[in-house]
Amino acid sequence: MIRISRAPVVATAACLALAACSGGGTTAAPGASETASVQSSPAAKGDGTLSIGTVLPQTGSLAYLGPPMFTGVDLALKEINEAGGVLGKPVTKSDTDSGDTTTNIASQSVDKLLAQKVDAIVGAASSSVSESIIDKITRAGVLQFSPANTSDAFTTINDQGLYFRTAPPDKLQGRVLGDLVVADGNDTVGILAMQDSYGSGLANQVIETVEAAGGTIVERVDYDPKAADFSADVAKIKAKNPKGIVLIGFEETVKVVQELVKQGMSASKHKWYMVDGNMSNTNFVRAPEGTLDGVKGTLPGAAAPEAFQKRLLGVNAELAEFTYASESYDAVVLIALAAEAAGDDSGAAIAAKLMDVSKTGEKCAGFKECVDLLKAGKDVDYEGVSGPVDFNEVGDPSVATIGVYQYGANNKFNAAKAIEYRKGNIAG
């Protein structure tokens, strides 16, 4: 069982043996999270129509995650509105682009959504992008709900009680990844991590876990993800000849992989490991067959089951990635249930009910089943597609699951079937 205390974030070295997150974050603003006591401004009652905006990647380094996340949102809204909507009215939606930290697209998108007076914003995917817009969103009294932020900074950030996420903090994924690397017999490990706090945070936790288990980090390279060439970075790893190589990054990992192969450090000679930021079934399709064969990686949340994938494909038949689709779907369903439970679609009212609909009451799955219970006067405990969720008082899921996946010779992994799961409790 994994227990992570708050204020400040300190993780105990609890049981990870045989049991054990996305986007880069920057340094968080000081101040404790106020989710348990919502203090939003303004605190006006909603207008009776739940309006959701999305700030998700259509462009930028995480653009490949856009389709599954948008599709998860769209599927949830389809099912919610087919069940009668929220507070007797259809839920409305407006999609915008988050871009990445090289642009100001996310801030412009938020301005657009706030002008439309949305009640809740789903996004961003990147933690660093979310940190750049969180103040603007929450100070407007709007709920921000990310399906993919994993930076530990959000546990203690001053969010006016209006920030929630369905993805667990990086500390958990870092521990699972480090534990996996050692369990696979790698007593010498090299790390190539993108140079931001997403990469640094995960790398730090992997190092701590590997060294605690008796392994040795022979080289760590923090690289510029915008670099045109990674030959010097890979050469540093090659010089130390580690058994295992951990790759922590986003889309630029494609170039890193090409350089590893070029310098004779293929996955057939060394064991490679990836994370949620670079696990993809589309980014590596042009690589020679077998390039990623046997490579393992970690993804927060339960695998999207085949039945759920079919529902997603019914909305977007061309969907090839499923990462964070479940978390996006759950985010929208939870927002809708909380608004229904509150009888109010304002951001503050929704935030005040998210803990209630996620962890107390009668267990239920899907919006219709849960909303029927609410209308019958019962408390509900929504069981999500991504896992039980169960929010703690700072807006983090209190129970988290990390799936371990493995690539085949076709350079793809089965997103519906993890080779193992590692679960942990995150204490509030």
What would you say this structure looks like, in words?
The protein has helices spanning 66-82, 105-115, 127-139, 170-183, 197-212, 231-240, 253-262, 306-315, 325-342, 347-359, 367-375; strands at 4-5, 10-11, 51-56, 92-97, 120-123, 143-146, 163-165, 188-194, 216-223, 244-248, 271-274, 296-300, 362-364, 380-382, 399-406, 420-425. It has 428 residues and is α/β, with parallel strands linked by helices. The strands form 4 sheets. It has a 7-stranded mixed β-sheet, sandwiched between helices. The chain has a 5-stranded parallel β-sheet with strand order 4-3-5-6-7, with helices on both faces. The chain is elongated. Residues 1-42 have low confidence and may be disordered.
Order of helices and strands, N to C?
EEEHEHEHEEHEHEHEHEEHHHEHEEE
**Can you give the mean pLDDT?**
89
The tally of strands reads 16
**CATH fold annotation of the largest domain:** Rossmann fold
Parts with pLDDT < 50 across at least 5 consecutive residues: 1-42
Q: What proportion strand?
A: 15-25%
Distance from first to last alpha carbon: 14 Å
CATH class assignment of the largest domain: Alpha Beta
Radius of gyration: 21 Å
Instruction: Look at the structure and name the CATH superfamily of the largest domain.
Output: Response regulator
Q: DSSP helix count? A: 11
* Biggest sheet character: 7 strands, mixed
Structural class: alpha/beta
| Shape label | elongated
Known CATH architecture of the largest domain: 3-Layer(aba) Sandwich
Sequence of strands across the biggest β-sheet: 9-8-10-11-12-15-16
Number of domains: 2
What is the helix content? 25-40%
